[in-house]
Please model this.
Amino acid sequence: MTKIFKRPSRRSFLTGATAALAAPALLSATRAYAATPTLRIGHVSPRTGPLAGFAEADDYVISGIEKALAGGLQNNGKSWNVEIISKDSQSNPNRAAEVAADLILGDEVDIIVAASTPDTVNPVADQAEINEVPCITTDCPWQPYFFGRNGVPGEGFASTYHFFWGLEDVIGSFLDMWGQSGVAKSVGGLFPNDADGNAWGHPELGLPKPLAEAGYNLVDPGRYQPLSDDFSNYIAAFKESGCEIVTGNMIAPDFATFWAQAAQQGFNPKIVTIGKALLFPSVIASLGERGDGLSSEVWWSPNHPFSSSLSSASSKELAEGYSAASGRPWTQPIGFKHALFEVVADVAKRAEDLEDPEAIVAAINGTNLDTIVGNVNWANGPINNVSKTPLVAGQWQKDGDAMDLKIVANSAAPNIPLTGELNLLG
Amino acid sequence: MDWLNAVVQGTLLGGLYALFAAGLSLIFGVMRLVNIGHGDLIVLAAYLGLTVTTATGMHPLFALIVVVPTMAVIGYVLQRGLLNQTLGDDLLPPLLVTFGLSVILQNGLLEIYSADPQKLEAGALETASFAVGGLNLGVLPVLTFAVAVAVIWGLQWTFYHTALGRAFRAVSDNQDIAQLMGLNRRHIFGVAMALALGVTAIAGILLGIRTSFDPSIGGGRLIFGFEAVIIGGLGNLWGTLAGGVILGVAQTVGAKIDPGWQVLSGHIAFLIILAIRPNGLFPRISA
Model:
């Protein structure tokens, strides 16, 4: 064998060792005498694992934010550099808490942000609350965020804030969509035994009560275990009650199993509106022809009449930018991930003292910002520490070769234009 | 009629579980190897099927022509290159290595195929059904059950009517003496793993047609496979089919009572059988 590495000579060893010894002195000096201080933002999201679809646009969004903030932020006439440190929760709540603690205690971030489902948002917010670090989160209905963290209405939390919509908005937009269709008011409910499924199926806080008030008959056979291989009993129960609408909150593999079995066993509902499973174009594409006509809630779309407060890009430009950069269709979390950093930048500009967590929290509390997902203002929230963004309902319809999510019901947020009409299935 | 429907649908579901379990049963029977990565190998097969169908545009069932031999080769290489080194008196090293394999497979698939749910497009087969005596039976579940029966019959025939089967049984009974009699047990183990992963390939493709899959769902499928193997009796292939059917029927009948009990009643059936007959219903090997 030939020798690849040279043995270090005495002289080169001495040079290297001296440099290594001297380095910390130099480095600490640069930090202490830096002309512009740095604001550190910690970011936790599920980059890998079952929730990875929510975070697929992270790199695109964060690089856009970094570009917009490349010149630094102005706070009280002083310029601050912004550094975003992003960590992966691996779709695991324990891991999310761990990396949040790491960001707070190890990287000593000034603000921590997190997005995508209670499994990411809640543990991060809990860590921030314990350590009194300002925290902003999004992309999780507010009930699992607030009640899942044992929040007390009227008291709320000291340093953690959240913006998104709630179950009442989902229910409202679903009813809005079904109401205009004229189908029989008999609804089959598919709720899994997980945090979302139990919240949606909750007799008081979930779908059953408002549906009954609106005159719908909800057939809810019970909670199934996620990753179920068989829905025959649900299908039999729905057929027996003549359900023309199917709703619920499912993960994509469960919906695919249900939807194939429904066809095999001769159950053909006219409207299928499912939360969570039908958010992503990739899921609809995987269902092929049977994906046409399914409906879902819409938190954000390229047609939302909002634009970024940071880059002044419109919703359309942001979505198309992602498609151009990645070659993949837009997804709803892109807007919220962008808005999250918009709020952070706005807070950082307004805070009276960026060195003081309490001043940052006060600035968050005073937010009134028009973001790419709508207005964020914690003074108008339904409950402490929560601000709501508008929600509409949409249907996947074939548009040329691809499936497009058309907005078909908007009575809760008429400023978001309709882009299509609800078509019945079958 | 509803109850009959639940039982029939459960039996068909049992066919899928038996396919998940057949590979596990085979390798446990031959080399006492508990493969924790089995669920992820099923998902790997589904992804291979996806690659083949998107690259060539052929029907997923025809993709089996490519995927089965590919998985078999992977199995042989895996066994000879890695798992043979871990086999010995201790059960723990192969357990740990296959657990590591499972983690590597999941993350490898995530890196290559991303977290998007995928599905194998089988056209009309996915939703086709026929009516028998007032019941609607899906063509795909019936096909899955038939394939499960055929695969188990094929494996059973291989075991008892071929020279290879004799070699399998010999190394299973006593490795050292089989070696003395001129059988190369390392090669036999490799062939057994190749056969097991060939079956896994069929299970993976059928799973991919039945539902959508992503890199993380393998683990959830593993447990049903294990339960079917243990209910049926370790190392007994027909027992594995029976185990799968018992598990499937227990699940659908449980779900008929209350959907929350679907998975639970499968586990309860498993625990009852484990309590009454710790070696399973039809044990071939005394544990």
